Fold Metallophosphoesterase.
Amino acid sequence: MNVFRFLRFCGSASYWSELSDSKLQATEGAKQVERRDEKLLLSFQVITDTHIVADMEHEHNRNLDRALKDIAMNAPQSSGIMHAGDVTDNGEQVEYEAFRQIWDSNKAGLPPLFVTSGNHDICDDWERCIPLFMSQTGMTGMYHDHWIDGYHFIFLGTEEGIGLYCTLSNEQLSWLDAKLGEDAAPDKPVFVFLHQPLKDTVAGSLEAQNWYGVTQDEELKAVLAKHPQAIMFTGHTHWELDAPHTYFDGGGTLPAMFNAASVAYLWTDEDEHKDGSQGFYVEVYADRVLVRGRDFERGEWVEGAQFEVR
């Protein structure tokens, strides 16, 4: 059975009330956000940049195993693990097989996995790597969407390989616009995933940092600006969750966006590599979404990365 299960879910349409412009609110003094005693409507995790290699003893592979064990232990109600790309380090079949081996050793306690591609998965030899990525993940296209327990999840992906950047066709952008408009409600979130961040939004994407990477940056921003109920998660930069700009509040024109760090290794504002493994636990309640940074290596919450989208 293929480890990558891209399923379509149906569920009741529970939704928010009194959404206020999709604004993010970090907790005062970097304290953990308040988790009130009320019904949890949906929960899922966001991981990215696992960079799996053929060597099963490599730190990247051990970090993925550790992250999956953390999720299995702490999120028994999870509806899915959302992977924002760079599943592999070089887009090789043996690396997908290593990923599958790690997943299979943990799958008894895990929810379904949903994936989009990263630049390491596609590489420059995109005519070979795109079909391999699709065959190994079970994807039927480079972009896809799913309804999970009544909430809409949309995955974007490059349609060719051009180094670090992704390329989104006009057809994909029109598709996104239409999908974001399906059963649109201003008080119900829609979750969007893309490997590369938009310029001058989240950590690593600032012009001086130079880790943005969407060829159609302005065109994608124009689509997202029409749909403030969206919440977007990206990878690519590896920036640690303690860094400034882990979240982007939209600047008054765009939806909320998050940098999801990396499971394999981290990067800092000093432009330096850092050992570590991080991602997000996401919880949806009637009036807000909690986005909670998790340190998988230490098995701890990242106190400076606990946010609310109301």
About this structure: Helices lie at 59-74, 93-104, 119-122, 126-137, 170-181, 217-224. The first strand starts at residue 24 and ends at 26. The chain has one domain: 40-309. The mean pLDDT is 89.
